[in-house]
Amino acid sequence: MMMKNFQNIKLSGLGMGNMRLPLIPGKGDGDIDFERASAIIDKAMAAGVNYYDTAYVYHSGKSESFLGDALVSRYPRESFYLATKFFIAANPDYKAVFAEQLKKLKTDYVDFYLIHSVGDDSAKKYIDGGSVKYFEEQKALGKVKYLGFSAHCSTKTLKEFAEYRKWDFAQLQINYYDWKYGNTKEQYELLKSMGIPVVVMEPVRGGRLAELSPEANELLKKRYPDRSIASWAFRWLKGLDNVMMILSGMSDMSQLEDNLNTFADDASLTEEEERLLFTACDVFRNKLVIPCTACRYCTDSCPSQINIPEFLRVYNHIKTDGDWASWEFEHIKSEGKPSGCVSCGVCTEHCPQSIKIPELMGEISEKFGKQ
């Protein structure tokens, strides 16, 4: 197992996220299949994985209890490191939350504690509400060993929150897709310049980078037929020197075994392999994303008065980030909706990119109800 130095301890390069554990078939998100999930824990521990990440809200609040039973109760406490988080939107009573977490996790301390999902709207609330100060106090008492935060925010907010105190670490969504098409590189380099080590979350973008388009997959498989598509994402991340830990939410044994093979050593991608990966990334995105430039030539002639560019923008967001992003449809200002498209074809005639707009309006309407 690849190991990384962090302050005075050694961490496995691969950490286990506990947000996507196997579930009992036909049940809800809180119904964790204990037998299958604990088998993953056992194999991970045997292979040298020593970092286990959870949060107050994961699996409808059941993830921490699972780890308390499957990990803490069954292994020596000094043989692994626990990470959990305080999420103000779930319960602002940080004192009650922390007491509940220690009880669920069956421990009297947490190794890595995070202020959870710092956003542009929540950063100030965390500070003004007293939670950061409280967890600083818990660190002084030894109930928290290392204090950090996870973030989904603008670079401006990230910088301000990172500067608020001397953090031990931070957790960011980093993957090669967001590195090229998002602000991930900028945020990673900001934290690196501040000397804040990074824990990586969403290394395969919630599974979206586990399988690319057929054309992109072919490029990578031609180079290494026996290497999984997902492993390319992890190997690329292994080349970032300020990364102290890469989390993976493994929901079955095959995913764990593939990751263990990837992290058997510290080898990352060569420069040639990295170029190939980003070429595959471009191919994937070009096949995935609708090439709308928001020129709006289509809207003036639309008899249904549909704000076509905005609906296509959100649809692109859904294609790259998942169906959860469909909430953005509700905030589009438009007289008409895709369901009102009459397939006249005038929009297509005016589109410089020759996008088949009526077909896409039909897709949006069919997949997302009354849109």
Characteristics of this structure?
about 40% helix; single chain; TIM Barrel; 2 domains; alpha/beta; two-stranded antiparallel ribbon; eight-stranded parallel beta barrel; 15 helices; about 375 residues
Short description:
The protein has 15 helices and 10 strands. It is an alpha/beta fold.
Give a verbal description of the structure.
- The chain is an alpha/beta fold and 371 residues long.
- It has two domains: 3-280, TIM Barrel; 308-367, no CATH class.
- The chain has helices at 34-47, 63-72, 94-105, 123-128, 131-140, 155-162, 176-181, 184-193, 214-223, 229-237, 253-262, 271-288, 308-321, 346-350, 357-367; strands at residues 3-6, 9-12, 14-17, 51-53, 81-86, 110-118, 144-151, 169-173, 198-201, 243-249.
- It has an eight-stranded parallel beta barrel, surrounded by four helices.
- Helix 6 (155-162) links the parallel strand 7 (144-151) and strand 8.
- The model has no long low-confidence stretch (mean pLDDT 95).
As for the CATH topology of the largest domain, it is: TIM Barrel
Q: What do we call the CATH homologous superfamily of the largest domain?
A: NADP-dependent oxidoreductase domain
Helicity level = 40-55%
Distance between the termini: 49 Å
How many β-strands, per DSSP?
A: 10
Strand order of the largest sheet: 3-4-5-6-7-8-9-10
Overall mean confidence score, pLDDT: 95
Q: Assembly state here?
A: single chain
Q: What gyration radius follows from the Cα positions, in whole Å?
A: 23 Å
Q: Summarize the biggest pleated sheet.
A: 8 strands, parallel, barrel
The first-level CATH class name of the largest domain = Alpha Beta
Domain count: the total is: 2
In percent, how much strand structure appears in the residues? 5-15%
Low-confidence stretches: none
User: What is the number of helices?
Assistant: 15
Query: Which shape, going by the Cα principal axes?
Result: globular
Which class best fits the helix and strand makeup? alpha/beta
How do the SSEs run, as a string of H and E? EEEHEHEHEHHEHEHHEHHEHHHHH
Q: What is the CATH-assigned architecture of the largest domain?
A: Alpha-Beta Barrel
